[in-house]
Amino acid sequence: MAAPFHKMHGLGNDFVVIDARNDPVEMTGPRAHAIADRRTGIGCDQLILLEPSSTADVKMRIFNADGGEVEACGNATRCVATLLAKPADIETVAGILKTRPQDSSASVLLNPPAFEWELIPLAMPMDTRDMPVGWETLERPMAVNVGNPHAIFFVDDCDKVDLERLGPIIETDPLFPEKINVNVATIVDQQTIKLRVWERGVGLTLACGTGACATAVAAIRSGRVQSPVSVSLPGGELRIDWKEGGPIEMEGPATHVFTGTADWSQFG
Ligand SMILES: N[C@@H](CCC[C@H](N)C(=O)O)C(=O)O
């Protein structure tokens, strides 16, 4: 039976959003993977399933294009805020997130980041501010958990990094038992960072909201920049504001592209 979905994106990081608050949809990893396929499915970086919540306005489940269900997605949270069209608390595996839509953009407050190696998680104890590890030219990353895990490499020119080749090697390294999102960042000035991201379970994306937050937090914490920070990604810019110990505020564009219908049972 045909059911509606929304195609949305935040800076080109694109989503199929299914509102299952009134009509439940059974979602599995293989089904999400089939829907996300850009040739044989609808196509998206993440599939987002909205369900009723007993603790917030709505519950949001996040599936990467490979079908893996994950904890957080900053850009999708801002898109859902746009869809709800009012300030809302959104329940995720990473906690309840406060959101606020504004015209063509939206903001989200991510819960305070974690820096402990057990919480990233890493396979062994290590100082996450300066990890004594490296993969060819990418060395000594920082690691931050902003709801999901990120490794951040500060480099002279992030455009020169062969992220398509190194990204999957780092993502699946045994040091990261739950895999990891790989960020390569270049400091432009005291309030601007240029960023490219290899997303866990997806690959290269045009933007990653949690990656921008993790990178801004790492850069602020290590004294490389001062908050608020503008993070420039291939798909556009996000503004990140963070003070030590507090939540992370992210603001940027969130776009509704079209509404369609599909029969979910055709995807397995
Ligand atoms: N695109 C996202 C992040 C989605 C989840 C990520 N790939 C993971 O596996 O943790 C964002 O905007 O934050």
Total of DSSP H or I helical runs spanning 4+ residues: 4
CATH architecture assignment of the largest domain? Roll
The count of domains is 2
Which secondary-structure class do the elements indicate? alpha+beta
Mean of all residue-level pLDDT scores: 98
GO molecular function: diaminopimelate epimerase activity
InterPro entries: DAP_epimerase_AS, DAP_epimerase_DapF
Family: Belongs to the diaminopimelate epimerase family.
Pathway: Amino-acid biosynthesis; L-lysine biosynthesis via DAP pathway; DL-2,6-diaminopimelate from LL-2,6-diaminopimelate: step 1/1
Observed structural traits:
268 residues, alpha+beta, Diaminopimelate Epimerase, Chain A, domain 1, 2 domains, two-stranded antiparallel ribbon, 4 helices, 19 strands, 15% helix, 40% strand, globular, binds ligand LBFN2T5F
